[in-house]
Amino acid sequence: MPDRSGPPAAAATAKASAARPARFRHLRNLGPAGWTGLVFVVAYLLVATVGQLHGSPTELVTLGPEAPSLAHPFGTDHLGRDLLARTAEGAWTSLWICLTSIGFALVVGTAIGVSAGYRHGGRLDGLLMRSVETVQALPQFIFVMFVIGLVGTQDMHWGPLTIGNGVRVALAIGIGFVPYFARVARAATVVEMREDYVVNLRGLGVPPREILFREVLVNVLPPVLGQAFLAMAIAVFAEGGLSFLGLGVPAPHATLGNLVADAGGQILGDAWWYATLPGAVLVLGILGFNLLGEAYGSRNRNRSTRSVRSVPAGAAPGGTTGSTGGIPAGYATEETK
């Protein structure tokens, strides 16, 4: 029976042990601001999750507003509905609108930015970026209000398809963020296209699609994803502002913005909790995503600086190194065959 506990097994064990802390290295590098942001986001998600289990957001549990108690930790609103349950529903609504809008903007904006950056200085670059600047003609929040004002706040029916107001709000916010991601992706792509490894790959006749998706996009995504956290903070704020103005998800569905708006007439009385507690959850989400974005962006900039300083002459930058002459590993040449 062969002994399988020799050097190969020991080497595999050592490799696995070394890999375990590496999985959490990105958490250790967050810094104080990043950890604070992570705590805020976790607290936001806890309120959204625990509140959903507390009761129905539409059930009348009291005869009117009541202060926070053990039975109702966030108190009740002016109609006697549990405010923790409604805050949880509002937090989830704000979160899915935020994720949908930023996901849409990230995909579309990155595609536009990478395409424009690859054709830097050409007609396609000019056409795409002029289109992006058209969207930026108005301030982002004003643009979103303009789009929602055009399409209205009622559900839209296209045959069997129904588009709710929440989807329209998410798309309006997402369209407003497309130029934001397009510019970041274009700038990063222009930098990558000037690197030696891309020039060498183009000289070898590697198809542009393979260069973009296999090499360039890998190095463009980190700064784009870093900006996504900052954009999420703005999206949460934008959704709250739209709901506060009555342009977001309509009643009886709860959002953090319309909860604060509904509390407007109660603040002058004794119902301090009505606007304060949902507003605090909204602030947690905004600050949490903002601090995470700042920490991720700072970490990415530091890593890029270290990479530039440590890359030897003739080597490819980024994570695609590993060959001679500035050509990423995996591409055979006449010299390396």
From TrEMBL:
Record region (Disordered): 303-337
Domain ABC transmembrane type-1 positions: 91-293
Transmembrane segments: 33-53, 94-116, 137-154, 166-185, 271-293
Family to which this protein belongs: Belongs to the binding-protein-dependent transport system permease family.
Keywords linked to the UniProt accession: Cell membrane, Membrane, Transmembrane, Transmembrane helix, Transport
Location(s) in or outside the cell: Cell membrane
Protein name as catalogued: ABC transporter permease
Chief place where the protein resides: membrane
Gene source species: Yinghuangia soli
Biased composition (Gly residues): 316-328
Membrane topology qualifier: Multi-pass membrane protein
GO CC list: plasma membrane
GO term, biological process aspect, one: transmembrane transport
Entries under CDD domains matching the protein: TM_PBP2
